[in-house]
Amino acid sequence: MDHSPIPRRTLIGLLVAATLVTGLTSLAVSAQEAPVAQEKGPAPADAMLHALDVKYPTQYRPMEAAQTKAVLDRVLVYLERTTPAELVDKTTGAAITDISRANPQAVLKPGDFRLTSYEWGVTYLGMLAAGAATGDKRYTDYVTKRHQLLADLTKAYYPVVKADTANSAAPIKSFLNPHALDDAGALCHSFMKAKLSASPVDYGQMIGICGDFVTKKEYRLKDGTLARGGPDGNGGRKMRPLPDTLWLDDMFMGVPTMAYLGKTTGKREHYDDAVRQVLQFSKRMFNPQLGIYMHGYVEGMRDHPEFHWARANGWAVMAMVEVLEVLPKDHKGYNQVLAQLRAHIKGLASYQTKDGFWHQLIDRNDTYQETSATAIYAYAIARAVNRGYVEPQMYGPMANFAWNAVASKVLANGQIEGICVGTGMAFDPAFYAYRPTSVKAAHGYGPALLAGAEVIEMNKKYKFGLNDSGLMFQGAR
Question: Is the overall model pTM greater than 0.85, yes or no?
Fold first, then answer.
């Protein structure tokens, strides 16, 4: 046996090899085992800062149905008290109880608002919606009482007005002898909606008067689009403010009436007319890059006064949800109207302010936040969510936040702040930016009722709440 000593260089090599094998084995074992847990220390001081309570100026959570109804009730009580459904002698102020015959001295008892204005057509719609959403009969009774009075007055005074439109007197003459869509369209819409909800009032004569005006007598452009600035009857043209002018407001003042005439009469040509109006107004006045409408358009002009007034955009979006409510889904224009509604709602979404409102000129942050337009958007967007036109995940939180903004403007006595007064059309931003606001501006009361009612319905159908501090959709109920 050879017992020669191992050479020094060989011995060093063997030792290095053994060390490498041992190390690799150790690494292989440790790679399969979890490392020792790090000892837990105190949480960093800023670990929960993302969950700190935020002081939002506008309530940042869905409003409970009872809370919403309390807001609507304040509005109802105020309007019930300040819009009497009575006749008085215009000279003595004495009550007139016999309304079965025409009395040239009779006028509606003065209140804060007129019972036959287009704004009150919207208010009747809001009362009907609030009654349906809350189950409180006081809202529908408000409508029935005043609609019945208007029906009785129509029966008594229409023959007199028709016989002498120039010299006759009647408490509701602007309705019995309309001169503009404002006199007839929104009221007609409210009559038909009440009729479809089984109101006991006989609406036949009134719908005949206002429906005939909207569909046959209002001025139109050559392609049939509703317009202002037609012949003045004396060989000239009306300046409203220029001949052949489109006001975006008229999408609501006339178009839902056409659609509801289709529903109540079964005549498909009324549906066709409503769709044509939506598409022809939109072709001229919708800015697809901004996703919103201009307020006014003058046929024949190369350039137009493109001011994006908030309430006019409200009338447009409201018109589309109302048309879709009754337009048959198999109508050839249904998908076009739906696509236009979606484009408009998507456009409006990008302009909601941090307090839940929209500005008086939608894309001008230097104009004030306006209540009536915000209410109309809250209603129309919530209705679109409820009908499946748009996604609740995207638009439900927005509608809730908009309603909270509107509710913050309802005073304890039921009056509503921040409503822009009646507004014509202009060619400069100052006109819109400096329009006054008033609690006596009738334009905001119907939209507020509609918004609260529709948000109640939306929150019955879907759940919304805070997720990681953000107001989010949380599924169907």
Answer: yes
